[in-house]
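Bug: token stream looks shifted between consecutive jobs. Job 1:
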Amino acid sequence: VHVGHHHFYFDISAVEKDEQMLKAQFRVFKLKRMHRSRRSNVPHFCKVEVYELLESENKPQKKHLIASRLLSLYAEGWEVFNVTQTVSKWVGNSSSNHGFWVTTTRVSSNGMEHDVVTFAKSPGALQESRNALLVLFTNSNKQRSHSSLPSATSNSRASMSRRPRAAAAAAARSPLTACHRRELYVDFHAIGWSGWIIHPSGYNAFYCRGSCIFPLGESLNATNHATVQSIVYTLKLSQDVSMPCCVPDELKSLNLLYFDDKQNVILKNYKDMVATRCGCH
């Protein structure tokens, strides 16, 4: 029996005790085994077990099993373990955090073999983006108040007071709804992106919907060109001219934590991902 062990410690002191722990994932990148055995009777799998250390790493015999699974010796990639319950306990009592103890076990007749599985944990530039991660999904009232966007309802109410009376009257008579922003939640799992996006699991992209009929009020954020086009459309001066389009007028960026083609963990800011305002263009 060949047994290897690895110790992983994460400082989570920055997490406040009143934050709700939704999910915690321990992620380790398993490196490919370079020397493949040619003998058919040699097992190509090993057992990986993740433990919570109950005391310091000097006493690894005192541990609690969190998860275990079989892995191919010759595969490479990220392995994800659910450690929500353990990390929640650590957040409540930081002194109980002694880290994770990972053991790899393989039964073989070759007594000289050691280092069954290698995980990326060196500070080298090549493996830096593959180092072990502890990804936390929390629900904090403080964070939510900063990140929340004003609702479409509150925007429309504020803009109604600035709209010219003629425009307000025209909007009241029109059976069509004026251009406005509506919610659009994008679930990355539903669109098939959950395999490479680590966080978030989805986001509210919003979208624009409604008509741009003359007269265009201030709340419709219309360009001069859209105003002229709406006049031509309303007067039916040209059959080829359509109504101006209700489209995003302002957009903001979104941070994504994801795996690239080489299984490196990347944090990137993607521009123009969220519609924050709609207008007639």
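Job 2, same session, no restart:
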Amino acid sequence: MVRRTVPYFFLVLLTLFIILNQVQLDKRMKNKKKLVEELMYFPSGKFISQVACGYDDVLSDFVWLRFIQYYGQEMLTNKEFRYLEHILDILTTLDPRFTVAYTFGALLLVTNVNDPDAGFELLSKGMRANPMKWQLPYMKAFLYYIYLEDYKLAGKFFKIAAHLPNAPDFTRRFAAFVYQRAGSIDISLYLWWELYRATKNPWEQEVAVRSIKQCTIEKIERLIDTYLQDKREFPRTLQVLVKEGFIKNIPLAPDSGEYYINHQKRIVECSTGGYLRRKWKKHL
């Protein structure tokens, strides 16, 4: 009985603290400085969780409301968001499964606070607590791609998201796209083929077919560049690349199209159409 009374006592005290704090904050909402001062003295999420006695969700709702109020106040005034990271840490400690707090919070930390390290650390915290949530690595990839232009890391986290349960097909498409931008053609091809086989959406398949052709042609172009540097001549056919050991075999396109060299145009083409990209006049 004593063991149940002690936590209950702390819960009552904590509840009284929240109610009194709520009343005071409501009276002071017109005074932003006082609201910020109150937020600064929030205990850590770990401390609150220890004395919450199982009522973490209730407390996290309270902190979420304060977070929204704080965000609104900052957007209407100087937009400094000085205590944003602190509030988000409390919120995600109280409710580690609150996916939106991680994704929306990280977006704000990167875009509004200009603190990508804090944003990525918040997402890493979320991924540790929710390893099967595709939204978390997806947001990480999005931020790497859009704001840091780090295509390799973006591709890495798009790929992680794409392989998690219930991940939509576009995560695979984005993974392939950014890997292509980063120069990892083989990984891009793998992901595009995976999307082509997995999706039931005809539009997605059509995009995948075009992108597979584009990636394959780009890969063959790079091999021809290497062949030119080594042999100082243009290959007569793509089979020469196979014979000389530059590639194991020449793949078929998803629609059974065959790749070949158009010597008249000095380009690589696909018999069923595709992205025709480069000429090699400079190498001849």
